Amino acid sequence: FIVVFAAQATALQHFAGEEFLLVLKGAIEVQVGEREFRLDSGDSLYFDSELPHRMRPVSRGAAEVLVVAAH
User: Edge-to-edge strands of the sheet including 27-32?
Assistant: First the structure.
């Protein structure tokens, strides 16, 4: 599915499985466990979704992110 971030962060969450993110437009920051990553358009991230994680937009306009989650 594609998530469009306009202005606010997602809540901290965790669940069994894996997650892949691909930034289609804009930029986001992703917190996974104790680490933080900045992803710009074209960047991707793969992680264990059992780790607490959240995303927030950091670009001026809306950010679009393709999210693939396997549970």
Answer: 35-40, 27-32, 53-57
Q: How far apart are CA 69 and CA 52, in angstroms?
A: 14
For residues 2-33, one letter each, b for 16 or more C-beta atoms within 10 angstroms of the residue's C-beta and e for the rest, the string is eeebeeeeeeeeeeeeebebbbebbbbebbbe
Sheet holding 63-70, edge to edge: 2-5, 63-70, 18-25, 44-48
pTM of full prediction above 0.70: yes
Residue whose entry in the numeric block shows the structure tokens 């992703």: 30
* pLDDT tens digit at each of 71 positions of the chain: 788 877 777 789 999 999 999 999 999 999 999 999 999 999 999 999 999 999 999 988 889 999 999 98
Using the Cα atoms of residue 69, residue 53, residue 14 and residue 4 in order, give the sign of their dihedral.
Answer: negative
